[in-house]
Amino acid sequence: MMDLTGKTALITGASRGIGKAIALKLAGQGANIAIPYLGDPAEAEQAQKEIEALGVKCVMYVCDVSSFEASKEVVEKVIEEFGGVDILVNNAGIVRDKLILSMKEEDFDMVINVNLKGAFNMIKHTYSHFMKKRRGRIISISSIVGLNGNAGQANYSSSKAGLIGLTKSTAKELGGRNITVNAIAPGFIDTDMTQQLSDKVKDAMKAQIPMKRPGTPEDIANLALFLASDEASYITGEVIRVDGGYAM
């Protein structure tokens, strides 16, 4: 039993998809949940209701994680309202897929700023808090395209590869303070984002997966729960694929 009772998890972009699944999974083990998001308020309200139904505290914060100052402000609010942060999950992410030939500068910058700089901002502003507590868990959601690359996703792949470097560097800085820092690299996961792909593209991707099916957000959430728990206290600096064998 991975009991998180009394702990607080700050999970960016968790109003839907993988982030929401992680929030629900951690809440199911007793963690209170703080969610900075920048999306549909109705989705956020629904996610909050589902999380609170598990008997824990949940607060949603409208926040652009790519903003250094906005991230600082929301971290300060979470620490004040919850009394501290025990688990940070960097999940917020966007895509702007195009071949490099047609990719605009703003397409590249926006994805890097949200996916990579956003994670840096949240780590930066929780860093001293974790150090003072002398314990903590930081988990970043990377991707197998951060390991393998993918045509048409130079910006997304770069951001997810950057998360891996950020994870390993942060793990080396904080390991001596009993703070673990790991990354999860999902493969083809059945989410709203992948549902927008054509059936032809989805079938081609599934054909390359040894398990012949896409993963679910819960597959990612199960690993996030383990990494957030005391059972994973000696695992740090790792990038763990959850991809059905796709990137073997």
UniProtKB/TrEMBL annotation:
Pathway: Lipid metabolism; fatty acid biosynthesis. Keywords: Fatty acid biosynthesis, Fatty acid metabolism, Lipid biosynthesis, Lipid metabolism, NADP, Oxidoreductase, Steroid metabolism. GO terms for molecular function: 3-oxoacyl-[acyl-carrier-protein] reductase (NADPH) activity; NAD binding. Residues 7-187 form the Ketoreductase domain. InterPro entries: 3oxo_ACP_reduc, KR_dom, NAD(P)-bd_dom_sf, Sc_DH/Rdtase_CS, SDR, SDR_fam. NADP(+) binds at G13, A14, S15, R16, N91, Y156, S157, S158, S159, K160, I189. It comes from the Bacteria. CDD domains: BKR_SDR_c. The keyword Lipid metabolism applies. Gene3D superfamilies: NAD(P)-binding Rossmann-like Domain. Homotetramer. Belongs to the short-chain dehydrogenases/reductases (SDR) family. This is 3-oxoacyl-[acyl-carrier-protein] reductase.
